[in-house]
Amino acid sequence: MHSHGLGQYARVLPGDYTELSGSAAARTLLDGDTLPTAVVAGNDQCAVGVLDELRRSGIDVPGQASIVGYDDSRLVRLAHVDLTTVRQDAEQLVRLAVAAVVELLYSATELDREPRVFSLSPHLVVRGSTTRPRA
Protein backbone atom coordinates (compact mmCIF):
# COMPACT_ATOMS: atom_id res chain seq x y z
CA MET A 1 0.00 0.00 0.00
CA HIS A 2 2.82 2.38 0.90
CA SER A 3 4.74 1.75 -2.31
CA HIS A 4 1.61 2.62 -4.31
CA GLY A 5 0.98 5.87 -2.44
CA LEU A 6 -1.94 4.41 -0.49
CA GLY A 7 -0.28 4.12 2.92
CA GLN A 8 -2.82 6.39 4.59
CA TYR A 9 -5.50 3.81 3.78
CA ALA A 10 -3.63 0.81 5.19
CA ARG A 11 -4.55 -0.45 8.61
CA VAL A 12 -2.99 -3.39 10.42
CA LEU A 13 -4.97 -4.99 13.20
CA PRO A 14 -3.41 -7.19 15.88
CA GLY A 15 -4.32 -10.85 15.95
CA ASP A 16 -3.23 -14.36 15.18
CA TYR A 17 -4.08 -16.97 12.60
CA THR A 18 -7.42 -18.22 13.95
CA GLU A 19 -11.04 -17.74 12.94
CA LEU A 20 -11.70 -16.10 16.31
CA SER A 21 -9.01 -13.54 15.60
CA GLY A 22 -10.52 -12.87 12.18
CA SER A 23 -13.95 -12.41 13.74
CA ALA A 24 -12.53 -10.00 16.31
CA ALA A 25 -10.78 -8.02 13.56
CA ALA A 26 -14.01 -7.84 11.56
CA ARG A 27 -15.89 -6.52 14.61
CA THR A 28 -13.23 -3.85 15.03
CA LEU A 29 -13.67 -2.86 11.39
CA LEU A 30 -17.45 -2.83 11.74
CA ASP A 31 -17.22 -0.61 14.82
CA GLY A 32 -15.11 1.92 12.89
CA ASP A 33 -16.30 4.91 10.94
CA THR A 34 -15.65 3.45 7.49
CA LEU A 35 -15.58 -0.15 6.36
CA PRO A 36 -12.53 -0.89 4.18
CA THR A 37 -13.14 -1.98 0.60
CA ALA A 38 -10.70 -4.89 1.02
CA VAL A 39 -9.25 -7.05 3.79
CA VAL A 40 -6.14 -9.19 3.41
CA ALA A 41 -5.73 -11.73 6.21
CA GLY A 42 -2.53 -13.49 7.27
CA ASN A 43 -3.99 -16.90 6.44
CA ASP A 44 -7.20 -18.52 5.21
CA GLN A 45 -8.45 -19.46 8.67
CA CYS A 46 -8.33 -15.84 9.83
CA ALA A 47 -9.92 -14.70 6.55
CA VAL A 48 -12.81 -17.14 7.10
CA GLY A 49 -13.42 -15.52 10.49
CA VAL A 50 -13.55 -12.09 8.82
CA LEU A 51 -15.82 -13.40 6.06
CA ASP A 52 -18.21 -15.04 8.52
CA GLU A 53 -18.46 -11.99 10.79
CA LEU A 54 -19.04 -9.57 7.92
CA ARG A 55 -21.70 -11.76 6.33
CA ARG A 56 -23.47 -12.24 9.69
CA SER A 57 -23.50 -8.45 10.03
CA GLY A 58 -25.24 -8.04 6.68
CA ILE A 59 -22.18 -6.88 4.74
CA ASP A 60 -22.19 -7.90 1.08
CA VAL A 61 -18.96 -9.74 0.36
CA PRO A 62 -17.56 -8.90 -2.15
CA GLY A 63 -19.96 -6.05 -3.00
CA GLN A 64 -19.04 -3.90 0.00
CA ALA A 65 -15.75 -5.51 1.02
CA SER A 66 -13.43 -7.98 -0.68
CA ILE A 67 -11.55 -10.55 1.41
CA VAL A 68 -8.33 -12.41 0.59
CA GLY A 69 -6.63 -15.13 2.60
CA TYR A 70 -3.36 -17.00 2.26
CA ASP A 71 -2.75 -20.77 2.00
CA ASP A 72 -5.48 -22.07 -0.35
CA SER A 73 -6.69 -24.47 2.32
CA ARG A 74 -9.37 -27.06 1.54
CA LEU A 75 -12.01 -25.14 3.49
CA VAL A 76 -11.85 -22.05 1.29
CA ARG A 77 -12.53 -24.09 -1.83
CA LEU A 78 -16.01 -25.03 -0.58
CA ALA A 79 -18.78 -23.34 -2.54
CA HIS A 80 -20.30 -21.53 0.44
CA VAL A 81 -16.91 -20.09 1.46
CA ASP A 82 -15.42 -19.44 -2.02
CA LEU A 83 -12.50 -17.39 -0.65
CA THR A 84 -9.93 -15.71 -2.87
CA THR A 85 -6.52 -16.73 -1.59
CA VAL A 86 -2.82 -16.79 -2.30
CA ARG A 87 -1.38 -20.26 -2.89
CA GLN A 88 2.22 -21.27 -2.61
CA ASP A 89 3.75 -24.54 -3.74
CA ALA A 90 3.72 -26.50 -0.46
CA GLU A 91 5.45 -29.52 -1.97
CA GLN A 92 8.32 -27.38 -3.21
CA LEU A 93 8.56 -25.69 0.20
CA VAL A 94 8.88 -29.12 1.83
CA ARG A 95 11.53 -30.23 -0.66
CA LEU A 96 13.58 -27.08 -0.05
CA ALA A 97 13.24 -27.37 3.74
CA VAL A 98 14.33 -31.01 3.75
CA ALA A 99 17.26 -30.24 1.45
CA ALA A 100 18.37 -27.42 3.76
CA VAL A 101 18.19 -29.69 6.83
CA VAL A 102 20.13 -32.45 5.08
CA GLU A 103 22.74 -29.93 3.98
CA LEU A 104 23.03 -28.68 7.56
CA LEU A 105 23.36 -32.22 8.93
CA TYR A 106 26.13 -33.11 6.49
CA SER A 107 28.18 -29.93 6.83
CA ALA A 108 31.25 -30.48 8.97
CA THR A 109 30.72 -27.32 10.99
CA GLU A 110 28.33 -24.41 10.97
CA LEU A 111 31.08 -22.39 9.32
CA ASP A 112 31.11 -24.76 6.34
CA ARG A 113 27.64 -23.87 5.20
CA GLU A 114 26.58 -20.74 3.41
CA PRO A 115 23.34 -18.98 4.34
CA ARG A 116 20.52 -20.09 2.05
CA VAL A 117 17.68 -17.97 0.78
CA PHE A 118 14.75 -19.52 -1.02
CA SER A 119 12.10 -17.58 -2.88
CA LEU A 120 9.00 -19.12 -4.39
CA SER A 121 6.47 -17.19 -6.43
CA PRO A 122 2.96 -17.32 -4.96
CA HIS A 123 -0.15 -17.68 -7.11
CA LEU A 124 -3.37 -15.68 -6.67
CA VAL A 125 -6.47 -17.91 -6.78
CA VAL A 126 -9.43 -15.65 -7.49
CA ARG A 127 -12.78 -16.83 -6.15
CA GLY A 128 -16.03 -15.24 -5.07
CA SER A 129 -14.85 -13.15 -2.10
CA THR A 130 -13.28 -10.43 -4.24
CA THR A 131 -14.39 -8.08 -6.95
CA ARG A 132 -13.14 -4.94 -8.67
CA PRO A 133 -12.83 -1.89 -6.41
CA ARG A 134 -15.76 0.48 -6.24
CA ALA A 135 -15.40 3.65 -8.27
Characterise this structure.
With 135 residues, the chain is α/β, with parallel strands linked by helices. The chain has a domain of 87 residues: 3-Layer(aba) Sandwich (Rossmann fold). The chain has three helices and four strands. It has a four-stranded mixed beta sheet with strand order 1-2-3-4, covered by helices on one side. Helix 2 links the parallel strand 1 and strand 2. The two termini are 18 Å apart. The model has no long low-confidence stretch (mean pLDDT 91).
Question: Secondary-structure blueprint of this entry?
Answer:
Layout lengths: L18 H13 L6 E3 L3 H13 L9 E5 L13 E4 L2 H17 L16 E3 L10
Parallel strand pairs: 1-2, 2-3
Antiparallel strand pairs: 3-4
Helix pairs in contact: 1-2
CATH class of the domain at 2-88: Alpha Beta
Compute the CA-based radius of gyration: 19 Å
Strand order of the largest sheet: 1-2-3-4
Mean pLDDT comes to 91
Q: Treating each run of at least 4 consecutive H or I residues as one helix, how many helices?
A: 3
How many angstroms separate the termini?
18 Å
Using the coordinates shown, work out and report the CATH topology of the domain at 2-88: Rossmann fold
CATH homologous superfamily heading of the domain at 2-88: Response regulator
Query: Quaternary arrangement of the chains shown?
Result: single chain
Quick one: overall form?
Answer: elongated
The largest sheet is: 4 strands, mixed
Q: How many strand elements?
A: 4
Percent strand: 5-15%
The helix-strand sequence is: HEHEEHE
Helix percent reads: 25-40%
User: Which segments are poorly predicted (pLDDT under 50) over 5 or more consecutive residues?
Assistant: none
Specify the structural class.
Answer: alpha/beta
CATH architecture annotation of the domain at 2-88: 3-Layer(aba) Sandwich
